[in-house]
Amino acid sequence: MRSPYVQEPRPGTPPALSPPIYPSDLDAAGNDEGAPRAPAPGGEGKPHNQPRDALLRGTDKELEAGPAVTGGSAGTAPGTPWQRKPQHEAMDPAGGSARGALPRPCRVLVLLNPRSGKGKALRQFERLVQPLLAEAEVSFKVMVTERQNHARELVQAEELSRWDALVIMSGDGLIHEVVNGLMGRPDWETAIQTPLCCLPGGSGNALAASLNHYAGYEQVTNEDLLTNCTLLLCRRLLAPMDILSLHAASGIRLFSVLSLSWGLVADVDVESERYRCLGEKRFTVGTFFRLVNLRTYRGRLAYLPLGSAASSKTPTSPVLLQGGPVDSHLVPLEKPVPSHWTVVPEQDFVLVLALLHTHMSSKMFTAPMGRCAAGVMHLFYMRAGVSRTMLLRLFLAMENGKHMECDCPYLVYVPVVAFRLECKDGRGVFSVDGELLITEAVQGQVQPDYLWMVSSGREPSTTQEPQQTPPPQQPL
């Protein structure tokens, strides 16, 4: 049964999508000295390069016959999952469609960023992915991206009917480009139904780690994670996946497949770029550096909790667009949020994170409460006043999903359907799926079951309701 929050897309022209705006100055001054303590919590929350087709010879017989990858290692026998068997062998019908698997044999278009992560994605595809695809009768053609937003351009121009799925091998940023490219097409309603597959080739690989978790595998990284995700593709099962529809004050509309962050998480995303050669360790280095030079940002947050959304009505003045899905819970940014929303008083924040999935990277199990129900996302925020010692404890505990057991009174978690974030000092940046957006007022709503993803099927929702912790008497 589909979620009661499903908003069916309306026919029309494509949404006005724009590439992210990149800030020129990210070095905001630190202000941890004398940071004001957060007020006692009220009702607002409960703490707690052009395509190079010739570079790789595709296995698609209509494109080119013969072996798969030029220069690849000899084929090996298909591997097995790196841990226990998946929990599901068929898609749950909750997606509202009988479509549950790719055909056999099938043809896929692989979009690969050779510079993502440590720059080893192409070699890993040849050595690990290609032999498994050959055994599973998955033919492919590879298109190598050469610049930012190249994948967006490729999918906007591609004849999608030639392919049974689009496979994205990179970090989380490339699948962000692909989804926004599909939503920018004149035939976006049909284009976004093209199944997608996520193969980890970047630094964070948060979406791949989440899919690995939903499949029931143990938490793994690097080549083990790549093997698990490739085996999901070989099994061909599909599951519906939510997207987050975002609107910025400047008029930009974006679609997120993973998260929007502001504050500490976004700072680490931005500043750790200089350590890209370290792979996923760049986030650890960036986090320790930012803890030493902790910043806070002033803003106001509002959100529509899951419980309130169930009984809410469409606003009298919803956000209206000429194309794309209708965000029925949102009103224009210049208007106050509806009365049934929860408003967090203006204050200083260490971070705000809206997260669609369980992981922020392959080693950061951020949402141990599990996968949200369709149309719902995880919302975390951290008030100013938290000590560096507590932040370090939370960071170290997050690898195993134990950070919610630290009982930090400055950390608030609540499952929500929509949110609005207004930054009051203009400092910092937003990070959307690892891509940067200048800091301005932004709001978003989850669009449930909006695209198809290669997965093992939808696991039952285990969304956790917020729990109350007394207001802090002093910083920990």
Summarize the structure.
With 476 residues, this protein is an alpha+beta fold. It contains ten helices and 14 strands.
Task: Furnish the topology, listing elements before pairings.
Blueprint: E1 106-112, H1 121-135, E2 138-144, H2 150-157, E3 165-170, H3 172-183, H4 188-191, E4 196-200, H5 206-214, H6 222-235, E5 238-248, E6 253-256, E7 259-263, H7 264-271, H8 281-292, E8 297-305, H9 306-311, E9 342-355, E10 377-383, H10 388-398, E11 411-423, E12 429-432, E13 435-438, E14 442-454
Parallel strand pairs: 1-2, 1-3, 3-4
Antiparallel strand pairs: 5-6, 5-14, 7-9, 7-12, 8-9, 8-11, 9-10, 10-11, 11-14, 12-13
Helix pairs in contact: 1-6, 2-3, 5-6, 7-8, 8-10
Descriptive overview:
The chain has 476 residues and is an alpha+beta fold. Helices cover 21% and strands 23% of the residues. It has 10 helices and 14 strands. It has helices at residues 121-135, 150-157, 172-183, 188-191, 206-214, 222-235, 264-271, 281-292, 306-311, 388-398, and strands spanning 106-112, 138-144, 165-170, 196-200, 238-248, 253-256, 259-263, 297-305, 342-355, 377-383, 411-423, 429-432, 435-438, 442-454. Strands 5, 6, 7, 8, 9, 10, 11, 12, 13 and 14 form a 10-stranded antiparallel β-sheet that branches. A hairpin with a 2-residue loop joins strand 12 (429-432) and strand 13. Helix 1 runs parallel beside helix 6 (222-235), helix 5 (206-214) packs across helix 6 and helix 8 runs antiparallel to helix 10. The longest helix is centred in the N-terminal third of the chain and has 15 residues, at 121-135. The chain is globular, with a radius of gyration of 22 Å. The model is unreliable at 1-98 and 459-476 (pLDDT under 50).
